[in-house]
Every structure is written in C-alpha cells, then in structure tokens.
Structure to design on (68 residues):
C-alpha cells in the first residue's frame, strides 16, 4: 500500500526520467511509431491533421514491401 503519495510520485517520476535517458534513439523512434500507429491514437483528436497511418509513410520512407 502506498502511504506517501507525494513521495511515491516523485520517485516514479525520477525512475521514468532515468529510463528515458537510457533509451537509444532507435528505441525512442520505435516507441514513438508504435504509439502513433496504435489504437491509443484513436483516442487523440487532431482536427487539422490527416491522420497518417504510419510514421514511415508520413516521412516518405518506403517499405521493402512497397518497393517493386
């Protein structure tokens, strides 16, 4: 049971920051693309956006599957 919510929140924030600092650029990109292409994005509202299906598509990066 959490007895000191403020202390717990501070500790959790510090642990999250440490974890983020340890991530590689590749890890960050992979997580970002996973979030952007997941069902979580259906909850987000972007009234002025065209909702790209993939970060790679939005950046113009061609997939090996689409190259012929």
């Amino acid at each position: 049971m959490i007895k000191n919510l403020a202390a717990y929140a501070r500790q959790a924030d510090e642990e999250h920051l440490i974890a983020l600092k340890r991530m590689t650029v590749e890890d960050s990109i992979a997580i970002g693309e996973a979030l952007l292409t997941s069902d979580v994005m259906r909850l987000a509202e972007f009234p002025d956006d065209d909702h790209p299906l993939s970060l790679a598509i939005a950046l113009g990066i061609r997939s090996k599957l689409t190259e012929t």
